[in-house]
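fyi for ur records
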Amino acid sequence: MAYKPNHNQVKAKKHLGQHFLNDESVAERIADTLTLNNYKTVLEIGPGMGVLTKYLLKKPVTTYVVEIDTESVEYLQANYLNLAPRIIEKDFLKYDLNESLNGEPFAIIGNFPYNISTQIVFKTLEMRDQIPEFSGMFQKEVAARICSKEGSKVYGILSVLVQAFYDAEYLFTVPPNVFNPPPKVDSGVLRLIRKENYSLPCNEKMFYKVVKTAFQQRRKTLRNSLKTFDLSDNLKANSIFGQRPEQLSVASFIELTQLLENDQ
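which gave:
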């Protein structure tokens, strides 16, 4: 039976940008998105009252949870005694995870708070050496953007940066009625599996700068949107600069970065 939070708990969680998942079958399905390949530890972000956690604890991995809400932490400590030593009462975005995880590989999973979901992804990219897998639930629009390919209207900065290092797969959609309080939008569950070769054959800082600058003026051709890079006339003549950013694959953005590096 799903845990039913009281009104004050719902109000507090809504303030944190999170909604209680109260459908057990959806929780189990999210837990089952983990492949359990190349890691022995899982970190759940924002477990709330543990509806997803209970299914993670059945897996042959060591589960940690990170939760900023004191009331949720107290509930988990009282109801999941075997988990208690691995409950981290911290802000995921500010906490040095290696204080608890000791540099070991781990997967990330969660029903992510909408208001920090993209920040969670960016921190994952920073720590990709340790994170071979990432799965969980986002606002559907964000999940679709992360997994979209070139040519899509929603393809953008997040799509390119994530897919430079991970293979992204949109798994399934979750309707609002399985949450308390129900969000105003659908949610989407995705899985990211780190690429075998997840280092870039170009300068990473330059790659990030090129992608972000290009999409800031996504309707313009790269010849115009990348003017701040002071392109040489020879480089401007390259056909790639006649395209718009949403037309470029991740591989093309890498090629573009290499061209700009060689032109400096």
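The two ends are 62 Å apart (CA to CA). thats all i got for now
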